[in-house]
Amino acid sequence: MGDDTNGLNLQREVGIIGAISFIGGTMIGSGIFISPQYVLSTIGSPGASFIIWSCCGLIAMLGGLCYAELGTIIPESGAEYIYILRTAGKVVAFMFVFSFIMVMRPASGTGIALSFAEYAVAPFYSGCTPPQLAVKFVAAGSILVLAIINCLNVRLATGIQVVTMAVKVVALVVIILGGIVMLFQGHTENFEDSFEGTNVGVSSIGIAFYQGLWSYDGWNTLNYLTEEVKHPEVSLCRFAVI
């Protein structure tokens, strides 16, 4: 906590690297490794899939820029809650945060934890489907460990976030380089008639956007801890430029 003469406040221990890691590490989560197959199968063609991903990326970028500006104007932690509180009042803010804590965030965290657990236990059950009990046990354990780490020390949580983001970036680079190598080897069959078989139904497009936006989710993460960021008026603007 901060100096008692200034009242109760959070220590500003998150720098620009930690801030980028919080957003990048959250966005590069289980969704980016799982959603592509569902986007492709839902929309029906590689060309339309690229368009969906581009549109989702544009929406996420615009949302991130808006939140960067909001974070500099209202330098308080809480993101959507604090913005709704300052604009729509206490009742609407309470309704939002109640549903957020009781439904939205637990459901999102559970999905991410289960995805992580499936990948974590898969090597121990090669050739067969891992038992659900083991998957759920690992998922619950991961949630508990991360909760304890975040409660104990902000710097430790930030350091872990930086390391995990670096690992995930390396994994993405390996996947991208593998795709580039295959392109140079002449595997371009997926780009021939790339829009053939596109599903133009409203439901297909909506589900594809849902899967794509799920992968980009996390661009608003830093605003939940604005009061813990060093010089948020500078860090948020730098992140917007990056």
Write the SSE topology.
Blueprint: H1 16-27, H2 30-43, H3 46-73, H4 80-88, H5 90-121, H6 132-152, H7 154-184, H8 202-216, H9 232-241
Helix pairs in contact: 1-7, 2-3, 2-8, 3-8, 3-9, 4-5, 5-6
Structural account:
The structure is a single chain. This protein is mainly alpha-helical. The protein has one domain. It contains 9 helices and no strands. It has helices at 16-27, 30-43, 46-73, 80-88, 90-121, 132-152, 154-184, 202-216, 232-241. Helix 2 (30-43) packs antiparallel against helix 8 and helix 5 (90-121) crosses helix 6 (132-152). It is globular and about 60 Å long. The model is unreliable at 1-5 (pLDDT under 50). One of its GO terms (molecular function) is L-amino acid transmembrane transporter activity. Pfam families: AA_permease_2. The chain crosses the membrane at residues 14-38, 50-70, 91-113, 133-153, 165-184. Keywords: Membrane, Transmembrane, Transmembrane helix. This is Zmp:0000001267.
Poorly predicted segments = 1-5
Please report the number of helical segments: 9
Which class of secondary structure composition applies to the elements? mainly alpha
Supply the number of structural domains. 1
Quick one: biggest sheet? none
What is the helix/strand order? HHHHHHHHH
Relative strand content: under 5%
Give Rg in angstroms.
Answer: 20 Å
Could you tell me the mean pLDDT? 81
Distance from first to last alpha carbon: 30 Å
